[in-house]
From TrEMBL:
<dbReference type="Pfam" id="PF00135">
    <property type="entry name" value="COesterase"/>
</dbReference>
<comment type="similarity">
    <text>Belongs to the type-B carboxylesterase/lipase family.</text>
</comment>
<dbReference type="InterPro" id="IPR029058">
    <property type="entry name" value="AB_hydrolase_fold"/>
</dbReference>
<dbReference type="GO" id="GO:0006581">
    <property type="term" value="P:acetylcholine catabolic process"/>
</dbReference>
<feature type="domain" description="Carboxylesterase type B">
    <location>
        <begin position="13"/>
        <end position="217"/>
    </location>
</feature>
<dbReference type="GO" id="GO:0005615">
    <property type="term" value="C:extracellular space"/>
</dbReference>
<keyword id="KW-0378">Hydrolase</keyword>
<dbReference type="GO" id="GO:0005886">
    <property type="term" value="C:plasma membrane"/>
</dbReference>
<dbReference type="GO" id="GO:0003990">
    <property type="term" value="F:acetylcholinesterase activity"/>
</dbReference>
<dbReference type="InterPro" id="IPR002018">
    <property type="entry name" value="CarbesteraseB"/>
</dbReference>
<protein>
    <submittedName>
        <fullName>COesterase domain-containing protein</fullName>
    </submittedName>
</protein>
<dbReference type="InterPro" id="IPR050654">
    <property type="entry name" value="AChE-related_enzymes"/>
</dbReference>
<keyword id="KW-0719">Serine esterase</keyword>
<dbReference type="GO" id="GO:0019695">
    <property type="term" value="P:choline metabolic process"/>
</dbReference>
Length: 237
């Protein structure tokens, strides 16, 4: 007989949240082979954490003798908002977080017995989208040499969005938290002062108005000057 307790929410907004989240978890087995697997979690770029218990890499490290690393990155509007380009909110900040983690791993993994030339990315859901996005990022070149993509790639229609769509959602969010002003600088200054929980809750309200089913308001944008350094669609084609 099944217990009648309600299911735990996948997106648990009661957990501590902060933009200061650039951390990683590492499992180093005895007698490591030198291989490194970097896991990028999914969650629609809306929620998730590398520290969730089902992402514990201890068993995988023990069985494969590879070093298992779970990386964190900014989510939602903090990681994937877009507003007027590089001068204000460039877009794809969460991908830059991942890139920074990969750069750190490249420069430091030998101190843990790892081989910097044997780094594989393993992504699940939008984590797989992220992993394959690094194939089109000039500054990610040389930071990994393999990809395991589970349930997604950046080439899927839900993998990235037009800048105009994400910017429209960003403006909706600014209006909901009363930060939409005539001056773009004033608008951004106002947003930076908002509590992260308020931004998350109001993002839910924006999602309810979303005209596109099955996608969150803030995703990878196809054009940027900081990660893809160009148009992703053109690079894929």
């Amino acid at each position: 007989m099944l217990d009648s307790k309600p299911l735990t929410k996948w997106h648990d907004k009661s957990l501590p949240m902060s933009e200061d989240c650039l951390q990683l978890n590492m499992w180093v087995p005895k007698n490591t082979s030198g291989a490194v697997v970097v896991f990028i979690f999914g969650g629609d770029y809306y929620s998730g954490s590398p520290s969730l218990k089902y992402y514990n890499g201890a068993a995988l490290a023990s069985m494969t003798k590879a070093i298992i690393i779970n990386i964190n990155y900014r989510l939602g509007v903090l990681g994937f908002g877009y507003y007027k380009g590089k001068k204000y909110v460039s877009g794809n900040m969460g991908l830059l977080d991942q890139q920074m983690a990969l750069r750190w791993i490249k420069g430091n993994i030998k101190n843990f017995g790892g081989n910097p030339s044997k780094v594989a990315l393993f992504g699940h859901e939008v984590g797989a989208v992220s992993a394959t996005a690094h194939l089109y990022a000039p500054n990610s070149k040389g930071l990994f040499n393999k990809i395991f993509a589970s349930s997604g790639t950046v080439q899927h229609s839900w993998g990235y969005e037009k800048n105009s769509v994400v910017e429209k959602n960003f403006i909706k969010l600014m209006k909901k938290v009363k930060c939409y002003h005539a001056s773009a600088s004033s608008s951004i200054n106002c947003m930076q002062k908002k509590n992260v929980y308020q931004l998350v809750n109001m993002t839910d309200a924006v999602e309810e108005e979303n005209e596109f089913a099955f996608t969150k308001p803030f995703l990878i944008v196809e054009k940027d000057e900081v990660f893809f350094k160009g148009n992703l669609t053109s690079k894929i084609i």
